[in-house]
């Protein structure tokens, strides 16, 4: 579960992590009043669940109350990367001397929590990880011993913190680790962790992901969830009771059974493609449900291909085929569709598809390869238009 920056910063404050003085504003007047009260420069920050708000225009510095009013007015009620902004966080601006990255998450490979610190803060950390992984220091925490002082010291040496700053960083990191553990977070991230001109460390941004499976023991945190701000396609999917998760690629995926769909995502990735979503149509596979599912997938305007993966058990492949063909025809889709069928009445299903001119892969590998190929060609054609 994602929570907003302002909610994460509330938690930080509770644990003694320094954050800027702030207020949450739902209208531009509130932003002006806050700026008047503090009498300082402020920064206005859109509270939506997207990364890279800075680049997208969701972070604005304001030198006076009028500018704060204007900045908030420009964000509120508008969309930022597809999501409506209904709140902004208005903070006293920090005088930034240097930006770091600090994050804690789970490393599944070593089965430990890992602390990551980078002197390349402020920017997209995935980019740093890809371009210059040596600029991210990692500290794996042994669950039996917890976070040790000497380990923190080693991190400080690597980051070239002087003695005073090292002491402050140790407090900071211990508090963040406590936030992470006590709230059952799967990620606690500060980017940028700011070294101010005054020589203090402060959380410039805050991102916390909470483990949904642990929510039963955090009833207080559950109330932080705001369904209204989720992705618009995910909202639609919830209404129709179809398990759908938006991803950031361009190949729409649907299949029957969560495990099969997960495998399909992996296969597409392995062939160099990038899935646009997870969608499980479940058993049955009626024409109606298939059409609903396809409509959901194609709400995503970045789509360049669709991969439909059906395992025929109780659902017979030929029946599923009829439903899929009917749905695609009624929608008049122009995006390339690749199908893979296996199981009960597979041959009959395949013949139905082939009679209509559809691409059917012999197995999952071939189908994945094919959809990646066709999506690439479709993308190239779109870009040349
Ligand atoms: P994100 O783009 O969604 O990660 O939003 P951030 O809160 O991380 O802000 C992005 C960038 O805006 C930061 O890396 C800073 O460079 C800048 N920024 C944010 N808050 C302040 C502030 O209070 N003072 C100054 N000078 N810059 C800020
Ligand atoms: Mn950030």
Structural notes for this entry:
With 385 residues, the protein is of the alpha+beta class. It contains 14 helices and 18 strands. Strands 7, 8, 9, 10, 11 and 12 form a six-stranded antiparallel sheet that branches. Strands 1-6-2-3 form a four-stranded antiparallel sheet. Helix 6 (149-158) packs across helix 7 (163-182). Guanosine-5'-diphosphate (GDP) binds at residues 43, 45, 51-54, 59, 91, 93-94, 96, 99, 122, 191-192, 204-205.
CATH topology of the largest domain: Rossmann fold
**CATH classification class of the largest domain:** Alpha Beta
**How many strands in all?**
18
Tell me which CATH architecture of the largest domain applies here: 3-Layer(aba) Sandwich
Q: Total number of helical segments? A: 14
What is the overall shape?
elongated
- Ligands and ions found: guanosine-5'-diphosphate, manganese (II) ion
- CATH-wise, what's the superfamily of the largest domain? Succinyl-CoA synthetase domains
What portion of residues belong to β-strands? 15-25%
